[in-house]
Amino acid sequence: MSIFKRVSCREFTDQKVSKSDLELILRAAMQAPSARNQQPWEFLIVEDKAKIQSLAGVGHYLRSLSTAPMLIIPFYRTDLLSPNYVLQDMSACVQNILLQAAELGLGAVWMGGAPNEERMQFIADNFGTIDGAKPFCMISVGHPVDNKAQQSRFDQSRIHFAK
What we know:
By secondary structure, this protein is an alpha+beta fold. Helices cover 28% and strands 18% of the residues. α1 packs antiparallel against α3 (86-103).
């Protein structure tokens, strides 16, 4: 199962992500549930390696960009019927991206953006915008240098039953 393969990958080979793999990843993203089926997502794909690498030294959370061959930047539209649920909608979308990447044997890592306005502006300033939409996060995607095994995070003590 993909969910038990998914790890945060921060080091990639030089091999590009194929167009067919990218399409499967984006198809999975768009299968996410959303409030009132509003499907708020739009996607900006960045494959300019120099542009991606130029940001690797900007901050600790961007270090994985030094070897990333691709960035997927999910944006969310602002003309929504249920704007209060957009963060949940987009989180489900991003989780689908991460799981599909794992299913394909690719590595990926989610670098946060929203609701931090400073990070959202940083993404927009460095990669551009989509009319009527705001950047949600950045996801670096590529072929992992190594295939790390996922560690179990199951903790029985965190399960509680209502009385």
